[in-house]
Amino acid sequence: MATPLTYLSHYPHHLQDQIAQLLDANKLGDWLRARYPRVHNMNNDKALRDYAMAIKNQYMKKTQPLSKVIYDNKIHIVNHALGLHSYVSRVQGGKLKSKNELRVSELFKTTPEAFLNMIVVHELAHLKEKEHNKAFYQLCRHMLPDYHQIEFDVRVYLTELENTGHVFVPPTA
């Protein structure tokens, strides 16, 4: 393998070998575009908020509300973060109020909806489960049955993105 597969290092070697072969043959982007031919059109914070709230309201009605849902250009793959779920605590009068925020890397503005869905589901699951444990992944699979496959495909996408700098073309207005 010429290129290290950083995002796929925890997967079985036979899968890594298949991805490495596609990468070496410059066919990994074609493989991704064949699997995911269309890019979503939720390219602003309002559309992202509406999208995330629809998923939250369908699967997690009783969880704490979200105060902010945005694309964030400060989230970098270097830190192995694609989205963030944070709690912002503020003192209001004599009370401590906490608000939940969901931030998605701007990288997901020009990806297939399945990739955005996986990131949003992952971050929403943190409203209920803070750790990446069995209950967390069960909740992810409840909201998105193909969660693990799409997570793998996102990691393949990140590998190709790092290799070529682009994979998907944004939709035209």
Automatic annotation (TrEMBL):
Biological source species: Alteromonas alba
Top-level taxon of origin: Bacteria
- The membrane spanning regions, by residue number, are none
**Can you give the residue ranges of the YgjP-like metallopeptidase domain?**
94-150
Q: Which UniProt keywords apply?
A: Hydrolase
Q: Which InterPro entries match?
A: UTP_pyrophosphatase-like, YgjP-like_metallopeptidase
Q: What is this protein called?
A: Metal-dependent hydrolase
Which PANTHER family does this UniProt record tie to the protein? Answer: UNCHARACTERIZED PROTEIN YGJP, UTP PYROPHOSPHATASE
Write one Gene Ontology MF term.
hydrolase activity
Q: Which Gene3D superfamilies match?
A: Metalloproteases ('zincins'), catalytic domain
